[in-house]
Records
---
Amino acid sequence: MDPICCNEHLIPVLLIMTSNAPDHSYLDLPRNHQQTLTRFVGPTRVFVSGDTLQIRDYTKTDWPWYFDGEAKHRRHETVFPEECKKVYQMGIELVQ
């Protein structure tokens, strides 16, 4: 099936999604967005960064028992910078 695109040329897309929930919580949503964007805009790559740090102090929320604020801070300091490097590289590849 030919892509349905209003553009004269397909436009590559990098969809970046961040979420307070773990990575595995979102499987269908980014896939659905990817399919739609690929069909109407151009080839689409998706990167999901889950379990991200949304606020500085989780003890000030109504659900301090629900989130492990210390783990989120550790992840933000160790994993998130590596994810940012990966997404930056994906962006470079997108425009080459």
Note: The mean pLDDT is 88.
---
Amino acid sequence: MKAAVIGSGIAGIAAALRLRSKGYDVTVFEAADKPGGKLAELQLRNYRFDMGPSLFTLPNLVDELFDLFPQYKSDFSYQKLDVICNYFWKDGHKLRAHKNTDSFAKSIESEFGVSHKKVLDYLAKSKANYNATAPIFMEQSLHKISTWLSAKIWKPLLSISKLNLTTTLHEVNQKSFNEQHVVQLFNRYATYNGSSPFLTPGIMQVIPHLEYNLGAFFPKKGMRSIVSSLIDLAKAQGVEIRCNERVKKIIVCGGKARGVELEKEVFAADVVVSNSDVFYTHRDLLKGSKPKEVERSSSAVIFYWGVKKKFPELDVHNIFFSKNYEEEFIELFDEKKVPTDPTIYIHVSSKVNPEDSPNYGENWFVMVNTPADQNHDWPHEVAQLRAKVLSKLKNILKVDLEGFIEVEHVNTPKDIEQRTGSYKGALYGTSSNSQFAAFLRHPNFSTDIKNLYHCGGSAHPGGGIPLCLNSAKIVASLIPDVR
């Protein structure tokens, strides 16, 4: 039996591998000239950059894909980071978050006076809530009655009063710490799915568990190597990946998906999996199907800077916080404006992979969260943001960075949309600024077209590498084995 996968983001490749392991002949159709979706890379002279996601958690979800084909030998490898992130505040406070939770908690106590027991208690609660909810809300379809009849559902239901569904993440963090630097640190985890800590429910307290209790990792050949290694695996197993092949239409006959229409041919298939954004899947590929408008997650302006200087105070991941972070999120989500005082995220992969930059410099991925595209004047916004970023870094790092930037490239939300097909350039599909967000995401299957499935950041359970891999896993669980 044949399966057609539309799009080669990490969820599309993962779905292709899982279907191949179930006996399907799988063909992946990719409109771009290279597979990989957001996990792309950029070479600027002698600097290499990962263009998309920069943090690797739950690596077991990638390992599982290689385990499907035990005879295949891969050179894909990763390492656990000793320092998860460096944090910088305008008032001079700094914090180095080590992988050891006790050391991390003691650093917070030393820098901010919050007892290390409070931090450890918070992380323990994060772990407990994750273990209670992940098997249902992240690993199964919420749109199948069988999920709600499963015995697994009782644990989260019985714990519902402890899951902070009716309070916001900010309220949980404020009650837990009541120290604004620490509150701000844990508030930032809302941005991991493109949401606001002042709107997203307190259950998002589960996210720090992934970094601090389970660990943050980094592939030894960069983030791009995650998907490139999986692409190599797919090809070795007979999965055909056809680039520069834009799907024009999903063929539906008798209420069933029967294949896809391309520019020059019709490809018949027994199963169709769309890794395309669900908005464009409905608007463009299912003619006459009206896409549902939901609040999109945040996007970003990203500067890729080859910096001809080494900064020993930086690590792989670094956060430079804004001063008024509540105002930052009001502008971002309520007013749909680029924040006037943005938090800056800097990723330096050459700290792990020295070959990513010349030996005298570093490769900086500099990201500022912005709204999803609303016809903003991005050239104007980029010019203003660039000046603000350079000014803030000069004040905190005490270096005039402008003279050290050797190469530069910029991505705006509009660029992200055009390059990846993500509606409005939203990085994580829909936002989680509601306690009902998990239920409002698109199902992993079509409710009115048989044999049509959806995976990726715009479908359940959401955006980010782990959730996209889980979406592919859910899709595969819904499709029968034909071996």
Note: The domain at 2-39+220-292+442-478 is CATH 3.50.50.60 (FAD/NAD(P)-binding domain).
